[in-house]
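pasting for the record
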Amino acid sequence: MDIVIEGLKKGFMLIISMDPKVYGITLFTLKITGIATLISLIIALPLSLLLALNEFPGKRLFISLANLGMGLPPTVVGLWVALMLWRSGPLGQLRIMYTPTAIIIAQTIISTPLIVALSTAALQQIDQKLRWQIMALGATPFQMMLIMLKEARYSLIAAIMAGFGGIISEVGASMMVGGNIENYTRVLTTAIVLETSKGNFDAALALSFILLLLTYAATVWLTLLQQRRQKDVYS
């Protein structure tokens, strides 16, 4: 218990003293995770609109695969990405193994199914009569998609936050394809694992506090948006 208390004290001191190492890892994590989430969003939104607004053979299969991807183990993703990017792999010529790019690729694969599945579900919840009304008013397909996205915007934000949360907290894929290289590919989760294995509980606790704070900040933001929606509904 004394070790935990002492670790908490030292971790708190590292945070308030603006330790360059701790905050460097934090900023790098936000950069990598932010890029991966943005790429996932660019891929996921068109797919979600396609699945939600159209009927075609195999639609249920695609949705089930997206739902399956929500539970995709990060270590499995890391393994397959590593096999693809390894020197003897199909994409070995790119020489991006153990680089930030490799982490972004792995995190994008993890995040995209989450956003696709949740966004598709959100768009499918919109009343079919609204779509008919939009079409009756002569809206173009692009205008209809924009209106649908606006109607489901709060649920879509929740989907994006789920994707962001799913990759900022994962460790397996980042460790396998990034290598946890100091000042190059080390993110918060892999740094926590390393510091813990070295017995540096103060640094590990400091990094864990920051990771929890980032996750909580995203949750608070989403909660505020949802509460704002409730006020708009009842006002």
